[in-house]
Structures are given as C-alpha cells and as structure tokens.
Here is the input.
Amino acid sequence: MSPFFSEWMTVMFSAMVSGTAMAAGVYLFLRVLPRGFSGMRSWLWWIVGVKFLVGLFFLIPVPLPAFVLPEIPAAIIPAISGTASEPTGINSAPESSPGQQSFPVSPASIAFLVWSIGIAVYAVFVARQIAAVRQILSGCESLEETAIGAMGRRLAAGIGLSRAPRILVSDAVTAPLTTNPFRPFVVLPASLIETLSDAEIEMTLAHELAHIRRGDLLMAIPLTLAQAAFWFFPPVWLCTRAWDAARESACDEAALLLTQSPPAMYGGLLIKVIEADSRRVSLSALGIASDFHTLKSRLDDLRTFPAARPRQRSLTASLLAIGMVITLPLYVTAQNTGKTSNDARNLVRNAGFEEGAEIPGGWLYGALFGIPQTRVARDMSVRHTGQASLRFSKTAQTFAPVAVLSQTVAPVPVAATAVRLRVWVKAQNARKATVAVLLGGEDGQTSKIVWGAYVGEAEAGDKPASHDWKAYDAVVPLPAGTRSVTLAAQMYGSGTVWFDDVSASYETANTKGKSK
Here is the structure.
C-alpha cells in the first residue's frame, strides 16, 4: 500500500472518530440544556463541523525532504557478536539489491479515487447553486427607494450593522433569502410581498439582517467544505442540519427582539413563508424559509421566548473557547518532532515512530512494498516508550528482497569524527534484521556501510533471536570525506522485530566518550 494512501486512510479515520466523539458530547450536553439558548447551540454545532475539517487537514503530516536510499554494494557477510555492541566495518552487504517496486491497486487507492470523485460531484453541485443565485441577482429590481428599503435601513441600524445591505425583489424566488457574504443582498419574492402585511415584512427583513449580523454566510463556508470532504459520512450532515436549525432559531430570536413582535404572529409568518417556498436555493444563500423538520424545532423555540438571558452570551463565549481548545490539540500533536525525549542532540526525526500512519513520518521506504509475506508498519500495541514502535514481520524464508526503511540525518559537521547510534530492539524468532549506518562520500554515493545493530543468526548454527527490549549501541567512525549519514532499518530473514527510540548524534574529538 502506498504511504500516501495509508496516511490518507489514517487521517480520515482519525478525523471521523474525533469529530463524531465531539458531536456525541455536544448532543448529550444539549439534551440536558433547557429549551432556548439557540445562539449557543448554533456555535456548538458549528465548532463540531469545524472539528471534522481541522482533523482532516491538520493531521496530515508535513512531508520532510526526500532522500533516496543509496544502493548498497555487494560484499561478504561478516561475523558479528550477538550483542552488536561494537560496530563492524563494511566487508559485506545484503544478499541482493532490491529492484524498483511498483504499487499495486489497493482498496485504499480505490477508496481515495471514489472519495475524490465524490468531492468533484459536490463541487459541481455547489457551483451550480452559486450560478443560480447569480442569475437570480441579475434579474432583481432594487427596493432602495421604496418604503421597504427605508424599513431595511432602519432595521439594519437597529441590529447594529454599520452598512445596510441592498434590498432587492425578484420573481425568480418564492422565499426571502440573503446571499453574498462580503457584500450582502437581501432578496424578497415579489409574490410574497403582495400577501404580507407591513409587520410581517418587517419581521422578515429583521430575520435576514440577523443572518448578516451573525456572519452566518461566512460561517457556512467551513461547514460546506466539511460536507464536501465527508460527503459519505452521515454525522457531518447531521451536524450541519443541527447547525441549520439552531442558526435559524437564533435569527428568529434576534428578529423578535428587534421588532418586539408577538411570538405567535412570528410563528404564523414562518408557516406562511415556508408554505409559499417551492424553489429554495441552498448553500450559497440563507433565508427565513426551511424544511418542516427545522420548522418544528423553531416553533418549539418560539414557545420559550424570550430565551435571551443575561448569562447566555458569557456562557456561549465560554463554551466557544472550550470548543476551540478541544479542536486545537490535533494540530499541536501533529507538530511533535518525535525525537527521543531525553536527548536534545538526537539527529533522528520521529525517532520513536510516533508520527505518521502505517509508515512513520520522516522515514522513506526502499524495497518495502510488494515483498511476499512481509509486513512493515507502526505498531501501537508494542513499544519501548511513547505510543508506537516500528514492526517488521516476515514469514517468507528467503533473505531477498530486503525490506528497508531509511532516514538521512543532518549533514555531517566538519569536526565530526564519529556517529553514535543507539536503538532499542525487541525480537521474536528473528533470523536476520539490522540497523545499518550508510556513509556517503563527496560524490553522493555510499562509500561504506556499518551494521550498528544486528539481530538474529550471526553465525552458522545460531538460533533466531528472541528477546525483550534491549539497547543496541554502536560508535561508527566517520572516514575523511564523509558527507552524509543514512540510517536504514532492514529485514532479511523471517520472524518479527520491533525498533523504537532510535538515537544518533555526531561526536567530535572533544565529545568522544562523553555521550551515553
């Protein structure tokens, strides 16, 4: 499986789980909350929608600079002690050099293709909605110089808008709507204006202006993106629907407060407008009209009016802050360097294999995929420290091809004389696995390879290695002209081996023997 598709599947799954967990928490909280508090409910459901989006985009690991694993030259396998406490000079190499591997079609790649097609279809749908609204606006007539226009300017000032939106009328709509988040327009249907009283028109305008005052059109953008990214996932749509209902109730409440109209009269207006609405335009426009499910919720909220309480705004602000804090750790966690916690000089990125999906971030594959009966992945159930380790498992008895995962560390300082390596290893019937140190010369080619850790059958007649976590240490001298150091975890024979807490640091003549 390609690392990209593996990363994508892990990120999608994590975003869905964390977002659904937050949605369930918000749902349970609102179940015990008294009726009303529509503004708070709309903010909470909006945060849940943003949670899905944040989980999708900010958990994707940032790719580190790509380094190509140098080809390992052919040589003879040396005899190595079982503890691998001393480095061995390069007189040997793997039995064969792996060829370039191709990536077969996998379920993850097919799922990614379907997901991308779904996003494309959704984007076309949104584009058509936006085009429909633009077409409506092109055929509208202005009401700025009429009594309705003057009413709109008065209400806009009363609700706290610094600039009143343009009030338009159109034969192409059957319900009032507000569109364009940056230069709002309120469009009233010509047919409905003729049947509404002045008080009902005032309440209608107040509702539309409340959308503008709250910034609902701008707030709808991240939720639309969440719907596009999770078009297949019902909880996202349910959260958006809950936000729709709470948002409309909040605007109903604002309209009642602004106009001081009786809730019963306003409820009658809702029924009248929704009955007349036959061609609602969604996504790119908001309006007083909604479906009958949302209507029932809004009418229930009207029964508790006035729902605005002195403590509501402060409570809403507090819950908003808490919701943002809950969302942010996903991004902070993704920025973890993954270095060994007690070694600030560690050159290895993601040394504990904490980041990434199936393949840990910062590490590159060699002949990793396409090897029969071989599995390489992060293991969340077995680790030396932290939350994960790197597991190689192979059931094939052949040594070749070799599974390789590598990382080129920081450039070699001029004064460096050696590189000190430590890696923690756990083995189970492992015939042969290594952590090799590949030294690159000025020409960019590998000039020397040292096995800093050797796990398995070192000599003829040895048994496969089986032991709990054990540290393998090595100090590898750097020949003159060494320009790069690459660490490569490798699996040759059958068995299972785990690597964790890889540590590497350069030594100079002044630091020799001081690092532990």
Observations:
- DSSP finds twelve helices and 15 strands in the chain.
